[in-house]
Amino acid sequence: MHTGGALALASLVAVQALPAAAQTAAAPQTNAPVALDTLTVTGQGKGTPTAPTAEQAQEELGKTVGSVGFVDAESYKGTLANTLRDVLGNVPGVFVENRYGQELRLSVRGSGMARGYHLRGVELLQDGIPVNAADGSGDFYQLDPQALRYAEVFKGGNGLAYGSSTLGGAINLVTPTAHTAIAPNVLRVDGGSFGTLRTSLQASRVLGDLDFLVNATVSHSDGYRKHARQQYEQVNGNIGYRISPDVETRFYFGEYVTHQKLPGALGLNDALNRPTMATAAVLSGDQARDVWTQRIANRTSVKMESGQLDVATWAIRKKLFHPIFQVIDQTGWTYGVAPRYTTQFTVGGMRDELVVGGRLTAGNTKARQFININGSRGAQTVDSRQNAYNAEIFAENRLYVLPTLALMTGGKAQRDLRSYSDLLSPTKNGDRAYYGFNPKIGLLWEPKPTIQAFVNLTRSQDIPDFSDLNQTQANGTLGFVPLQPQRAWTAEIGTRGEMGGVSWDVTAYRSVLRGEMLQYVTNSSVPAATFNADRTIHQGIEAAFKATVATGIAAKDDRLSVGQVWTFNHFTFDGDRQYGNNTLAGVPRHVLRSSLTYANDGFYVTPTVDWVPQGAWADQANTLKVPGRTLLGLQAGKEFSNGVLVFIDGRNLTNKKYISDIGTVTDARRVATSIFYPGEGRAVYAGVRAAF
Description:
Elements (H helix, E strand, L loop, with lengths): L8 E2 L43 H8 L6 E5 L11 H5 L5 E7 L2 E6 L14 E4 L2 E2 L19 E6 L13 E6 L10 E8 L3 E12 L2 E12 L8 E15 L2 E15 L6 H6 L6 H5 L3 E16 L3 E17 L2 E22 L2 E24 L2 E27 L2 E18 L7 E19 L2 E12 L3 H4 E3 L5 E3 L5 E14 L2 E13 L2 E4 L8 E4 L2 E17 L7 E15 L16 E11 L2 E10 L16 E11 L4 E8 L7 E4 L13 E3 L4 E9 L1
Parallel strand pairs: 5-8
Antiparallel strand pairs: 2-7, 3-4, 5-6, 7-8, 9-10, 9-36, 10-11, 11-12, 12-13, 13-14, 14-15, 15-16, 16-17, 17-18, 18-19, 19-20, 20-21, 21-24, 22-23, 24-25, 25-28, 26-27, 28-29, 29-30, 30-31, 31-32, 32-33, 33-36, 34-35
Family: Belongs to the TonB-dependent receptor family.
Protein name: TonB-dependent receptor
Main location: membrane
């Protein structure tokens, strides 16, 4: 099995961080939809060719002809922020749920919704450089929320400007440089429930044409559940050098060590009534996930009279020791090169903006499996090699046929090869080549500098990863299954902007899929098998609102603001021979998050409500559904003029027992259903951050 990891996030922050505000290239930036107005940025310098500031990135993101999201890292600095759920939890359309530790489900518009482990269907980038393995699988464990400056969310085909064309799109997590950091030094310590303690230190300097930044985080938790202890050690850094006024190169490096015990999935009754328990199988097998990852990358940017050329190169080495139903032992490399050229010119007096690029990526993994004997290797059962190669070219063009109306066209051509060989059982070898072309077209209208409306149509294509292609049977053997790719056409219409103290971001979309890769659990300890469905429909609404409702309540400059995020998911089979028009299992219909914030002179207090009126179906036959939930939270803190922030972050204050995530099955009446991950109980965290 080619595994990824999962770094999830759910931020109950002082105010909703909404997607990028509407703006033209010449219009002033609108901060209200993305800035946390109760916590202020300490300060940052000017951006550079390889690393724009958060404000510059938000302005560029606002030109996207489609649904996007932007999260300034300052918006969640007053929370524990341990996983990507704490980063992306306020972005509508992004469904993020914890399983345990930093393992989570991340799904955008139903991407990979049936995947019961790790990530599929969303491309993760760090500083614009892919983090996913070459086969498309994802790993969250090397992504540290404390090491980020901002995050960009490109839903669906709107990630084409970075080369992404999956159903879920792309999420770009950007780390600071010495030029964009909030301060030269940042020290942070926080902790609380379940034995949680984390320390993070960041230091940066500008030395003439040279600059550097290093961020290190050590995080420990005993976990809410038994056998869920976690220890993470993460280092991120970059070194930049300005070769000339128009040429800059920047090297990125990272070291990530993960030690995560696994508590396992439970039956529904146990998950709701005995949520802290671990399963007998994980205890007897001492199931765990230990990962050692090293990353090095470079981006070189050249400003020319006609535009800018950016060339990214990267190499990632990952060592995985993963005792589950068997001991999975993998060592592999992922590497690639990605040139990207952006330019502006006029056509018949009309402004035109063009992005063209390409990516060559490859991955080679030595994947072995052994009988699990109390968490140690027994007899070897698999000795395989997994090789993935991808060649992609893409282009996106925005032609402003009117000063306020842009026509967007684009497309991506790709060839992807997956090759598997088993040295112990050559008869199980297999390979498959995939080809595709994914076009897109859309319109962006800006009736006012702070208001946008858009409509677009895009095609996506998801290629099976090795966890899909090498299917594990109940007896522990592997078999190569040459699955079809997942294809979809997605139409969306939406608007975003700000007016009169109210900001909004609303999108409606509909995706028609062929060959959706769905999974079902064959055994609670064995990774799920994957099959191609016939025709399925994903449609929904992604909405976020924020408004200041009162000022001068108890002091001259105080404010009371409200925020609301609503994600509506309607995912169904479409005339399936077995399941008819049933709802697809794994994701609830409605997910809502509400907040009310009072802020004054650096002080803030924010009660929050997370509400899922009805839980998700657990099986494709729609016979078993988990209950809904209402979770109450409270965040409060004070930021002082000297750069010191103190905060308290309370979660699930009523100690509600609920289901956080599900590993889906075909029919709960006929198969085992130890597939549920209980949500964490009441938790209180506190922390202090000094930026100086």
